[in-house]
């Protein structure tokens, strides 16, 4: 399952966040969690990450260490090509039933 994570933090906490991040990465990620890509807001205070997780529990275990310093929003996402294929199949099914 792909998850899009938007982590925000106060700029004055930047050093604390990056030290914590270094510590958490040093401990290693849960086996069922893989970071696909990660971006940093050029203005600071925000990190956007795409994870591939086997279970939401792996994601929670990885991010729990940041809950005192950061606000985290997370959304399940689907790749554009996969979503497009899904929509086309749904449309074909609706067409076959004369519902679309």
Annotated CATH topology: Alpha-Beta Plaits
Q: State the assembly state of the protein chains.
A: single chain
- Estimate what percentage of residues fall within beta strands: 25-35%
Structural class by SSE content: alpha+beta
Number of domains: 1
In total, how many beta strands?
A: 4
Low-confidence stretches: none
Largest sheet: 4 strands, antiparallel
Which H/E pattern describes the elements? EHEEHEH
Cα shape: elongated
Query: In which range does the helix fraction lie?
Result: 25-40%
Instruction: Indicate the CATH class.
Output: Alpha Beta
Name the CATH superfamily assignment: Dimeric alpha+beta barrel
Distance between the termini: 30 Å
Number of helix segments? 3
Provide the CATH architecture. 2-Layer Sandwich
Determine the mean pLDDT: 92
InterPro entries: DUF3303 (IPR021734)
Pfam families: DUF3303 (PF11746)
Protein name: DUF3303 domain-containing protein
Organism: Methanosarcina mazei C16
Architecture overview:
- The chain has 100 residues and is of the alpha+beta class.
- The chain has one domain: Alpha-Beta Plaits.
- Helices cover 39% and strands 30% of the residues.
- It has three helices and four strands, in the order βαββαβα.
- The protein has a four-stranded antiparallel β-sheet.
- This is DUF3303 domain-containing protein.
- It holds the Pfam family DUF3303.
- It comes from Methanosarcina mazei C16.
- InterPro entries: DUF3303.
């Amino acid at each position: 399952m792909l998850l899009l994570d938007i982590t925000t933090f106060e700029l004055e906490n930047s050093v604390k966040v990056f030290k914590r991040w270094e510590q958490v990465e040093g401990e290693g990620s849960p086996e069922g969690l893989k970071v696909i890509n990660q971006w940093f807001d050029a203005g600071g205070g925000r990190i956007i990450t795409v994870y591939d997780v086997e279970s939401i529990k792996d994601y929670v275990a990885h991010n729990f260490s940041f809950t005192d310093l950061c606000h985290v929003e997370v959304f399940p996402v689907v790749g554009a090509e996969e979503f497009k294929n899904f929509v086309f199949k749904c449309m074909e099914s609706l067409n076959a039933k004369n519902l679309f």
